[in-house]
Every structure is written in C-alpha cells, then in structure tokens.
What we know:
This protein is mainly beta. Helix content is 3%, strand content 49%. The protein contains 1 helix and 11 strands.
Amino acid sequence: QVQLVESGGGLVQPGGSLRLSCAASGSISVISDMGWYRQAPGKERELVASMARGGITNYADSVKGRFTIFRHIATNVVHLQMDSLKPEETAVYCCAADTRPWPVRRTGGEYNYWGQGTQVTVSS
C-alpha cells in the first residue's frame, strides 16, 4: 500500500552533517504522519523526528536544535537534516509513515509502514 525508500546514509566525522531522504509511493493520499526512527546497537528503536500532514513537528529531546525534518507533501519526499552529529548517534535510520486513523493514532504506538533503513556511522 505504501512503499518507502531511504537514501543519504554513510560515514561522517563527529560534528559533521548528513541529509537523509525518503521517497514515498503507493497510497500516499492516506498517509497522515511521517517521520524518522533510529536504532543504535544495544538500544531500543526511537522516534527522532516526525511531521504531521498539517505541519506539526516533533523531535526527540536529544536532537532538538540539531536535526530538522522537512516534508514535501506534493512530491512525496521527506528529508532529515542532521547537524553536529555525535558518535553515539551511529544507528540504522528508518523512514516511517502512519496511515492509521486518528482514533488509533491518538492512543500512541508506532507507525505502520517502514523503509528498509540506511546506515549512519559517526566516527573519526
């Protein structure tokens, strides 16, 4: 129903920047929220940034002021600009989309569509 393809991951030195991109296809008209999750080795997966269809954004406390999410609804593309990267932010970053209706989304939980993930490695 919804397909997500990420790009832009790679190796970057501490303090450097990367820009991740996610292209959505399929039944994109039913997508409400889109965002980026990450999972570092030995840690649980966490939502680092999201943007609702109406433009409301949310960020994990650890990335506020350094990461920015951009969502272009007309072109079905979402970007994550990551600045001042830290070694502990080495992780697989996954694009995600939520098509669940509001009565379900309002209860919380994770998005229901996922990309394959892109590796981000922060190391000197």
